[in-house]
Write a structure and sequence with these properties.
Blueprint lengths: L1 H24 L14 E7 L4 E7 H6 L7 H10 L1 E2 L4 E4 L1 H13 L7 E2 L11 E7 L2 E6 L7 H17 L5 E2 L19
Parallel strand pairs: 2-4, 3-8
Antiparallel strand pairs: 1-2, 1-6, 5-7, 6-7
Helix pairs in contact: 1-4, 1-5, 4-5
Length: 190
Amino acid sequence: MLKSRRSFTRLLVSALIAVPLSACASSGGQEPGNSTGTAGAITLRDYTANSSMTLTSHSELERIGIPGETPADRRLAFYSEERTDASAKVCDDDAIAGLVELFQSEGLDRWYVDGPAPAAGGDRDNAFEVTVDGTTRHVMKGAMGEDWPAFVECMKGFVGVYNIYEGRSNVDGSVTFEKPTFGDGMRGNR
């Protein structure tokens, strides 16, 4: 069973890379990669490292009221908001739909608990926080008992998809690059 899980994870990641490429050829009026219209966000929390990674779909940006006429406009507005960390990335709706499907095929949905993941978790624990169409649920790896390998497979799929997308964020306290003021008027220092 573990071998088939790994194959499915690889297949999912490969398919998600191909979706935007094939959608560009014939989108049928849809924005490439947004054929499902899935409004969702998925966050992977690592309590040991006190870190998280978040994927938010274009339709979720619209649902939560990020301004903009098009998905590209909303993505720009989202990345322009000041944040405390730079881990959030905007992805296609189809990526969220594919990850939700992976989570269901691995049985993670049997372990879902209503509401967001806890702010702090156990040592060496991880959690997925899954929001789809405004409903938030979470699953903790440590609560899954012997089923924890399914969480790991979903983590591999999530990280693979997360790494496909570029993220740009306006992070609180980030360095602002400006033209240096020294050397103005000095020859050879341009």
